[in-house]
Design brief:
seven-stranded mixed β-sheet, 2 domains, five-stranded parallel β-sheet, Rossmann fold, 308 residues
């Protein structure tokens, strides 16, 4: 952290590989990625969140009532500059990857921002520390990080002997690869995850369909996050229709999750993954499809952390 003009500091942003200038003590934050918003709320900083994205509103279905009264300043892929100024936002938090392109727009309009890196595995425990450092709440970030680490240790190798194919519905079949936290955390729980054969973060489009048709042959169960809050086997089969023949041939069962159930790397992931493991066991042993709803993965107290 380097000194800058009064009230601001220059910090190194790993996601951008450069220094960015942010408020020393931001008090009106816009968080446009659900994982970041969830983390801020779990750190007890919900009052500092002024603006969010439409996708962050989805967190309400998982028990985060705190997002109900927040202003919508983003559709996730872009930001409303006028709204940011109208609500007096002093820091915008973005997520690496798809949202990185927004940084250029914010820089052009002299709006302070920081891009939180995407985890590639069990480094999800470091995300609260990075966020805490940026919003001048490092002690809260460290406390939350320790808590996530504790619960991650409790789901280590809790299952064995089940081979999983993880799929996301992002307007079509998208596959997490070996460098995705989704693949790594499923492996951490003891699953054999065929996605590890994909040597990238994610693949999508025709390439993903071709790869999935091959990986299905090695799998016992498909774990699918659909792009909607409401889950149904009909919707799941529609998303997986390009894999229909392979699924039918293997007589595979499917575990279906609502949007954010698998792709959100906020602190509650340690609870959601435990629920998911139970659902996968039920699907494989019972040889039937299993639907997980937001109520099944509803927010639980991460810990009785005492923040200084």
């Amino acid at each position: 952290m380097l000194s800058s003009q009064r009230g601001y500091v220059k910090v190194y942003c790993p996601a951008l590989k450069k220094l960015v200038e942010i408020p020393r003590n931001p008090v009106r934050i816009a968080s446009i990625a659900p994982s970041i918003t969830e983390t801020l709320i779990e750190m007890g900083l919900d009052r500092a969140i002024v603006g969010i994205s439409t996708w962050c509103k989805t967190l309400k279905h998982y028990g985060y009532e705190e997002v109900s009264d927040k202003a919508i300043i983003s559709d996730y892929s872009s930001v409303d500059i006028d709204a940011l100024r109208r609500y007096g936002i002093d820091l915008v938090l973005l997520q690496d990857g798809y949202q990185k392109s927004i940084a250029g727009t914010l820089q052009d309009h002299d709006i302070p921002f920081y891009v939180i890196r995407l985890p590639t595995g069990l480094d999800i425990v470091e995300i609260p520390i990075e966020i805490g450092s940026v919003v001048n709440a490092i002690n809260r970030g460290v406390a939350l990080s320790r808590c996530v680490m504790k619960y991650l240790s409790m789901i280590y190798n809790i299952v064995t002997g089940i081979t999983v194919l993880a799929v996301l519905d992002l307007g079509g079949i998208t596959l997490p690869g070996n460098f995705s936290f989704i693949t790594r955390i499923l492996q951490h729980m003891g699953f054999e995850v065929v996605n590890k054969e994909i040597l990238s973060h994610y693949v999508w489009g025709p390439e993903a369909v071709d790869i999935a048709n091959e990986l299905v042959k090695e799998s016992d169960v498909i774990v699918l996050e659909i792009s909607d809050i409401k889950v149904s086997i009909e919707k799941a089969l529609e998303v997986l229709s390009p894999l229909r023949n392979a699924i039918h041939s293997k007589k595979l069962t499917i575990v279906v999750l609502p949007v954010l159930g698998l792709s959100d790397f906020g602190p509650q992931i340690v609870w959601r993954m435990r629920v998911l493991a139970q659902a996968i066991l039920k699907a494989v042993v019972g040889k039937r499809h299993v639907m997980l709803r937001t109520n099944d993965m509803y927010r639980k107290p991460i810990s009785s952390i005492g923040y200084p």
